[in-house]
Amino acid sequence: MSEETKHDRFKRLSEARINKTLKNIGLLENLANTNNYHYTREDYERIIASLRDAVDDLEAAFKKREKGNFKW
Length: 72
Hints:
By secondary structure, this protein is an all-alpha fold. The chain has 2 domains: about 1-30; about 35-65. It contains 2 helices and no strands. The protein is elongated, with a radius of gyration of 18 Å. The two termini are about 35 Å apart. The model has no long low-confidence stretch (mean pLDDT about 90).
């Protein structure tokens, strides 16, 4: 029985977490249905800004781990 490598674990977990996140974004998209919900431009801009901030934080976390690891 072979052990799961760190990269295999990363791929397995990232796939599951990304799919869950995409599903939840789809649920947020449902809120744009004006037949069921009322919202203002400010409301949806706050949602989008919050999501962009989270993606920016995610990118920064990955980039932070890359610093100092340069090799030839």
